[in-house]
From TrEMBL:
It holds the Pfam family ABC2_membrane_3. The chain crosses the membrane at residues 12-37. It comes from the Bacteria. Keywords: Membrane, Transmembrane, Transmembrane helix. Residues 15-111 form the ABC-2 type transporter transmembrane domain. It comes from Streptococcus urinalis 2285-97. The keyword Membrane applies. One of its GO terms (cellular component) is membrane. The keyword Zinc-finger does not apply. Its main location: membrane. This is YhgE/Pip N-terminal domain protein. It is found in: Membrane. The lineage of its organism: Bacteria, Bacillati, Bacillota, Bacilli, Lactobacillales. GO terms for molecular function: ABC-type transporter activity.
Length: 115
């Protein structure tokens, strides 16, 4: 045991190896934890395509456009990075990695209100 300790103190290469081996798990932990730290803090940079397929409807002699109201609300929101586009461009953007997901607003013409 004494010979091993003497060899350890005399050989700087062995010290570098021991320190390097002990730092590898710490480096893995640092990379992993930094990727998981505060996942909601950067959602405003997450690109999301929004496709509005809604058309206006007439209800009790009033024109109602639910899709446009939702688009207006989304455009004012800073929660996600919304991009308002067509279905085709949204699909292409999803395939090539430009968008993370697609939100499609269907037509609310037949049932614009929940009653």
């Amino acid at each position: 045991m004494k010979k091993d300790l003497k060899m350890l103190f005399k050989s700087p290469n062995l010290w570098v190896t021991i320190i390097g081996i002990s730092l590898v798990p710490a480096l893995y932990a640092l990379v992993f934890l930094s990727s998981m730290w505060n996942p909601y803090g950067n959602l405003d940079k997450l690109p999301v395509a929004v496709v509005n397929q809604d058309k206006s409807a007439i209800f009790q002699n009033k024109t109602i456009n639910v899709g446009d109201k939702m688009v207006d609300s989304m455009s004012e929101s800073k929660n996600l990075d919304f991009h308002f586009t067509s279905q085709q461009k949204a699909q292409e953007g999803l395939k090539n990695g430009k968008y993370y997901m697609i939100i499609t607003l269907p037509t609310f013409q037949k049932k614009p209100l929940p009653f």
